[in-house]
Prior knowledge:
Metallo-beta-lactamase, Chain A; 8-stranded mixed sheet; 7-stranded mixed sheet; RibonucZ/Hydroxyglut_hydro; ComA-like_MBL; Metallo-beta-lactamase domain-containing protein; Competence_DNA_uptake
Amino acid sequence: MKRIIKFILSILVFLNIIAWTTVFHLSQPRVLKVVFFDVGQGDSIFIETPQRLQVLIDGGPDLTVLEKLAKEMPFYDRTIDLLILSHPEKDHLFGLLEVLKRYKVKNILWTGIIRNTAEWQEWKNLIEKERAEIKIAEAGQKIILQENPLVLFNILYPFENLDSKEVENSNDTSIIASLIFGAHSLLFTGDITKKTEQELIAQDVYLNSVVLKIAHHGSKTSSSEEFLESVSPEVAVLSVGENKYGHPSPEVLANFEKFGIPVLITKEVGDIKIISDGEKYKISNF
């Protein structure tokens, strides 16, 4: 009998903890939150809208993303509303494989390109099992995350549907998306090179943004002066870890300095969080 009572009390305590955790989470200010995770040499970005819809862009090169998600999402929340794979290279894809195994994903946005790698094959198998709604990214799409207040993605690139197209290097197939909330926009660039930057400029794509996610971890193949002038961000975020490629390039950092654009680097400051109410924003690292 005592064991039964203890068991019931344990359940009641557990339910009480969940209830108060939920109340605390829902009582937080209704703002847009964007967290650039420090996942080493790779990208992973977590977004939460004012109505608590959650988006994950890329998953980094290992399982660090799981630890990061656990800090940002309540322990009882195992659902991700939208998962975006910018392009299927290991430093963006690998962590998503385990995310798909541990979380319920409602929607997936990716390019649909074919890569002859073990990670790509596992990705394909997992998203087929997930039964999420899958959308192939193409310029012109608008993905509304919530309507009041409006939060949406404008898909700026690729210019064409790349579904089932086989490529050897997918960097220049990266999804380029602008996240818009009130007066603020954040530009996500995957690993595009100067070639794609020039295509965007030639097509007169509107790039101006408050925050720029620096392409390809600060590689010298990206972030041309013309591109930075077109985007004209107030701040830029660089996701990079220890690497053998010389990232970030001194040339790239000099370009940002030339335009007076401050650069926040995950390898130096850790996770970078941007909070916006649609009119004002603040940045913190922790």
